[in-house]
Amino acid sequence: MDLEACEHYRKQSYRNRCHILTAQGVEALSFPVVHEEGLWTGPITRVRVDYSTPWVLRTERALETAYEQSPFFLYYKDGLFGILERGIPTLWDLDLTLIRQIALWLGLPLHFRPTESFVADAPDDLRGIHPKHPCPGAPDMGKPYYQVFAQKYGFQKDLSILDLLFCEGPEATSYLLP
User: What is the span of the domain harbouring residue 160?
Assistant: First the structure.
């Protein structure tokens, strides 16, 4: 599977954020990035994660609070937190490490190849999916599954894969595949 390594960083995109369901409703988590002279120039592979704030600790606490009652959180927690605590310097490498680990947990044999030049309008291109704007070509992943706060908020779709993983564990794969 090709991953676009030559695009420019898009702020406020899923490249550095996700949504989880908490006792207060849907919450956005994000990995802050270093602002290079107020701009993000060059390919996404060079965007650096900003570790000058305690975002890793805040993210871990938010995940613990939201998912400590989920059936599989304790099973995946150490592996996930271990990745976050490594201090991986670039957003590209952090995202790729997380994607590979989640694919491994799901038992999905995914192999990623970074592109060597920018590919515009690639087949099955989902780069346009954005947290603030629906993407007409995005797959509908709204099939309900158990969620910790569903009694309070109903089923919430478009959450992080972590929500599905923590709530469904090994069964998450069958939810994703047709």
Answer: 2-176
